[in-house]
Amino acid sequence: MHGVIVIHYCRYTAVIWNLIITRQKSPEKIDEMVAPYGSVFIVGCGTCATGCGTGGEEQVKAMAQRLGGRVLGWAVVESPCDARIVRRDLAAHKGELEVADAVLCMACGAGAQAIADHTEKLIIPALDTLFIGKTERVGRYFERCRACTDCALLETGGICPTVRCSKGLQNGPCGGQVNGKCEVGEYKNDCAWVLIFNSLKRQGRLEALKSYRPPKDRSAKARPQELASR
Amino acid sequence: MEMGRAIHSRLMKAITEGRFVFTGEVEPLKTANAEDIVRAAEALRDWTVACNVTDNPRARAYMSSIAAAHIMQIRTGVEAVCQMTVRDRNRIALQSDLLGAAALGIRNVLTMSGDHTTLGDNPQAMPVYDIDTAQFVRMVRGIVDEGRDLAGNRIAGKVGLHVGITGNPNAEPLEMEIMKIEKKVALGAEFMQTQATFDIERAKGFLREMGRLKIPVLLGIFPCKSYATAEHLRRSVPGITVPDEFVEQMKMADAEPDRSRQRDRIDGVNIEFFSSMIRELRKTEQLAGMHVMTIGYERIVRSLSENA
Ligand code: SF4
Ligand code: SF4
Predict the structure, then answer these.
(1) Which of A112, A193, B114, B280 is geometrically suited to a Cys-Cys bond with B87, CB 3.0 to 4.6 A?
(2) ipTM score of the complex?
């Protein structure tokens, strides 16, 4: 049970495990979504949403308190995106789940759908899923990968052009960069291609900038992907 | 340009023959009425070899550049440099539009990234960027040289198009800009039009590099119709440095109370500045011509071309 050991480690040490960055919807929005249902069960996430402070035990308890009487119970599933762990961690809540009108899910979209599959209940998403990110500190996150299926980081000096260039350009900068800043966002963000240029220059690999990168194959992202490696 | 490549446009013919050329610019707006474009093109006709037709600049949803380019060509005889951005169309739409443009008699295409959707008047739009401008150049070459689309599918019959790219002499780091251009030249870009510059020394350095890459350059300039335009350019357009002296002279010209004398003085400041810039550049550098960003100031092109 390697996975469990990892999660255990994350939960009880200072390490924060947040890969998928989420944000809570506004209380008004959550109230509006919950209003039609008499009873709800709340499911939190012990991994990314705990790290983000959006769906950990603390936030789940606060949510239960705010929503008051209609909350039948709650659970923080170690990682709601893992069907095996969902089964394990929700086993003890079978009764509450059966009678609940809906499940308020404080996990990312993937977690919420795994909970939906397992419980076959109406799912109310309490979080918005933002991106796959890097954590600078609690509360400060940066999008760093869009799971493009064909990682270019070697050729681009460790900086992702798909995410960090606002136009996802693969062969160099657009005409909109000024002094290393991107035209998108009023010249506050770094232009990815200037970062790539500087990184390749540092690495003594500027030649990589000259090689032509053909159009990306978008077909892989045109349908929900599956992986069956075993 | 590669030896032996067929010539399909007056622009490419003039460049290949080594004639010093001027291109102008017309901007289709948010209207289905093309009269303003026709009027602007007519004002530019005798002094330019071709005119750019912009493709939704600043990401504003305007009349299509292909439609406007076609109307301009048919009604005024002015050859179009049809700007096409990769912002709004995926590779299917771009290829479809290239074939459509060629069928309408458009012969020059300027490949551009396009200002980002979020800067435009429909900022919630999906930014497409399925391919980038280097890949766009490759796409045009495939269509023209091999009769194949990007995926290798055959195209029936010949397609006559020339593919241009943009460059920015003001870019920093310039080394990166030059490497990007080098890549596009290797892919088969045939001509370049640049971002506007007021900086002669920078332009010289840039042109020297372009000479090494052997791509004909039409250097972009932005004559200012009024002191307000010059001031706006200086204050609010990032990446362009307008010399204080030029702005000062524009201010003095602007102070002239007599309207027609004011107009003449403003023209005079522009002609003096840009004509001497052109002469100076032509003395030492390889320069195919000038791309004059003329929107609303068409009359200046005549004087500039007569003084070149
Ligand atoms: S290139 Fe960028 S988006 Fe693609 S896998 Fe690598 S980091 Fe992720
Ligand atoms: S300025 Fe740089 S990061 Fe921004 S869109 Fe252009 S190339 Fe990409």
Answers:
(1) B114
(2) 0.94
